[in-house]
Fold this protein.
Amino acid sequence: MIRLSDIRINLSRQQTIRITNFTLQKNTLYLLTGHSGSGKTTFLKFLGGYLPSNKIQGSFSLPKSALLLQNPNHQMITSTVKSELQFPLIQQGISLQRINNKVNAIAEFFHIMPLLDEKLCNLSFGELQTVMLATTLLIPADLYLLDEPTSHLDPMMSDRMFQWIRMEGKNKICSWVIASQYPDEYCYADRVLIFENLSLIQDVPAGDYPGLKESESRFNSHETLQY
Amino acid sequence: MIVYPFNFKINDVKTLINENQIDLSPYRITGLCGPIGSGKSTFIRLLVDYTYRDLKIFSSYGFSAYLSQDLTRLFTGNTVNSLIALYQDDRFEVGRYFQIDNFERYMQLLDFPGKDRYNEYLTDFSEGERQRLAIALTAASSAGTVVFDEPTTALNNKYRQRFYTIVKEISHNSRIFIISHRINDILALCDSIIWFKGLHIVKAGPIESMIKFPELVNHYFNVKRMKKRAELELAALAVQEFKGS
């Protein structure tokens, strides 16, 4: 469990992200939602320890994490699907036999076995996002941070991602924070985090979210589209 | 526009195949649907990339505006102002078509951050902001064919609705192709669908009949998710009713 209290992340002179009070619980799947530009990606990078310390005010300690970037092209390290999947495990010093077992298991789960020998540059955008997602899920971590992981996945593959997370949740103690523009994905989550105007304004159980979503959609339906 | 039967060799092991002639002339907005890696983006490349025109896969070509899935190449090293200058440069084809008035109108509709940020590098903007800018640039290009490849991946519901408004407006003068894994985008906009699977164009037709096509139904309507969501929404409704009483 991690407590964040009165954290300020300075993006520029005018823009500061504020997290007044937030507790990240173990074995919990958080869905992080909010308008574009509201601070979701920066929050994920903060939790992953990817922001320079001189931009952050407040005291905190962060767990070992794995981050999936929004754009899979920005995350490629090796040249083929197989070597990309193997890479984080090789870094851990795991035996080749175990590495191959883990790679084959996740490749089979995400239906990317036929792609194992393909070069990453020959994949479609959706295939590349699936490979990068699988690679991130293979990194041993206490906190998984996934930035819009389903944006280019088809509905079947999105569903498989949440299935994998549920399966993994039974085997190890870790938490998940998933940024998403698709509020309907709250049904997979334990809790929903809502960002607005660079602040974390809500941390609610997923079961309470439909009511909030309802009031939001009522608001949207009344806005005029004349311009 | 007619799509003729073709076999296009993508590489040594992959070939995109269309076995039937598809007449798109009755339609304005066509959704390209299918699983990941089924050939949708390759199909679009055959239409918009000048190097493939000799293959004569389509009955007509013309100036196309294309919003790509990956905006990195367009945005790296650019600011909003430098992109506007590029799109208005009449040494390029786009410069002869680009409508700055429409661009500014779309930017306003999409609530793009103010002009005081137009000289900032686009790497400092969020993915959603960059996607809204790309939509405004593409829509304002007044091209005969406009392609949106996964245009709503970083948009929330509010901006998705506004994107729909823009697409409906430009569809009066342009033929539109939309690739999206979200059925809401397809239902809100398209009058026709081309269904791809395993690098084959399997079926094409008006949305009214395509929406009943079993492969498409199984792909888009995730029964498990819908059931879970319905349970949660019913529970929320019960709580609200209880509080009300």
Remarks:
- Strands of chain B lie at 2-3, 6-9, 15-18, 22-23, 29-33, 64-67, 145-149, 175-179, 192-197, 200-206.
- Chain B touches chain A through 52 residues (CB under 8 Å).
